[in-house]
Write a structure and sequence with these properties.
By secondary structure, the protein is an alpha+beta fold. The chain has helices at residues 2-17, 27-38, 133-142, 158-168, 192-195, 197-206; strands at residues 41-57, 63-77, 80-95, 98-104, 185-186, 189-190, 213-215, 227-231, 240-247, 253-257, 262-266, 280-286.
Length: 290
Amino acid sequence: MRKLLIENINHVISEYTTRGQTDYQSEKVKRKKESCEKRHAEIVKVEAAGKVNEVSMQGDETQTVLYDVHYKYLVKQGSYIYLEEEVENRRAVYYDGKIYNDGEIPAVVEEVKGQEITSVEGNGERTTYHYERLKAVQYAEKWWNTYNPAYRKFENDCTNYISQCLHAGNAPMRGYPSQGKGWWMRNNSWSYSWTVANSMRLHLPSSPIGLRAREVEGPHKLKIGDVICYDFEGDGRFDHTTIVTGRDADAMPLVNAHTFNCRMRYWKYEDSTAYTPNIKYKFYTIVDDR
């Protein structure tokens, strides 16, 4: 079984690095290559390593295999070269010496909850700060594919991860113990804005003190350590959050994220299983509060 999975991974690698269309090309590979072409970039080398997480037996001797593939893409854009990484969560069926239905598990969109955001004064908490962007990015790079044991891990971990990055950049928590106020995690409890993408999107531009941000007109206005919010369906409910950790040759953002872990990914997310043509974005630059 493992040998067959490795063969499948090697086939995907060849799809990424073969110029033009191949006889069989997955939708994700096609969209990722098209996204690169739009910005005159090319994936010149791919490395991948697989890890089996779970094998479950069915009554007819069929095995369902859950496994991860850690991809490393060497991307060339003009004279600029950078390394993008991501971890795909995949599912395959193994039966009678063959692999069936091998594919990426679709991204799970967050349920809406905790949208109520109310202002709260300082109540003696530290609210003034200078946002240290480099520290936020260093944290994002350290923990992009693992989880800091000092914090609780969530199944949909994207906003929790971004909150940790912002806090590592010196953004102060405030609002405890009200889940609908401020931005905080403490004593195995947390605010909605700390863990829920749509709540963070509401909190950042409306917060009068502490962690706050200003919406800017487009991705070209963002700095490292800034935040992008994603509404994949375009229905007004924001489902995902990323942090800017670099720039490509056109000075456009490259981002890190959790849930489906990635680093230095092109900000548009056109290759994501959650992407739809209706996608909408919000771009927030973090504002110092002194």
